[in-house]
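#help-structures
NK: newbie question, is this the right format to request a structure? protein is Asparagine synthetase B
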Amino acid sequence: MKKSLFSLFLFLFSLSTYASSILIPMDSESQKNHLKAYGITYWVLAKQQKVQWLLNYRGGSFLLPDGENIRKECQIRGVSFEILSDGQAQNILDEIGSPSKNQEAVILEKAPKVAVYSPKGNQPWDDAVTMVLTYAEIPYVTVYDEEVLGDKLALYDWLHLHHEDFTGQYGKFYGAYRAAPWYIEGKQQAEALATKLGYDKVSKEKSAVAEKIRKYVIGGGFMFAMCSATDSFDIALSAEGVDICEPMFDGDPSDANYQSRLDFKRTFAFTNFTLERNPLRYEFSSIDMTNKRNNVPKESDYFSLMDFSAKWDPVPTMLCQNHTTLVKGFMGQTTSFTRNEIKPTVMVLGENKLNSEARYIHGIKGKGFFTFYGGHDPEDYQHRVGDPKTELELHPNSPGYRLILNNVLFPAARKKKQKT
């Protein structure tokens, strides 16, 4: 009896020393729920435990410390995982460290504090980022103009810009929806908020908000924007002090020759673009390629992720981690970006080669970073006003949504100086 108990003790002891790490695989064959896997990783970081992000290893897998609570959490959330011994984990790290492998192990050190810039009345399903944060169980705080102008952004590591119009033209919805109750109410609310904050025009108030966000990034923040928040943000920066709004938006005429007065040195990503003057046209500028996609049928609308050196360029490699290099395309008010209007200092992370358009771009501004992602909802090809929300339970392995979550985890990484 004593011998049996002693043998059982030795077995359990050897098992506890053998199982020292948890691998969360992120390849297409092994992972049941890619999106919730990011939530598990964030959850571990929030408990002050470090994680290793294995770039280009099985779809960008995560190596976690072993623990019964982590195993249970994976099981509860439906996330696939594997138990590794010390030797197995070290063999993987040795393999990744080989100079012949385009792979790298990046240490994630802390759970980033996440803020979403969005009107208070918006529901989580109004925006792809809030949807996937909610689905992945990653906590976030909603901020809007009062918090931004009140210098609250410094409290957060990562800021997402909801599909905002920073130009003061109310999303250029005037042509189709100017008589719709929701448009009239939204315009009234924006004007009331601008007045409350001490501005005589919504365009001036939004310009001040854009400038605060610009300084947040320059000071070391990370900004992520989708759809119209990408180009309208840069347009607002370029038009500081210039009235580009027609009377139906702000009550007075736009400045004469305002196109020639744009300052492209102030923008993050775009340059030499031409603004759309027609207030009836649902478009901001020449940056967006939505109306230049006649040769891109839905069934062949895909964009490819660029291949970077994991050891030399870990930042863009992190942002492109996926279980496929070909991602299904999707539309938005701003669907994609004109290549020759992107600054040469900005990296294109994803492109539609068929139409020579950029879909996913990244850059550095001061001490901070920004990523612009074209389109509205990665699993709703042509989202329209009033369409039902996307049920992410039906898309737990969405490559398009994975790109968003790559950006969420990016501020957690221990940064290495980029080589190229």
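mod (FA): yep, format's fine, and the tokens are attached above. Residues 114-412 form a domain with the Rossmann fold fold (CATH 3.40.50.880).
NK: thank you!
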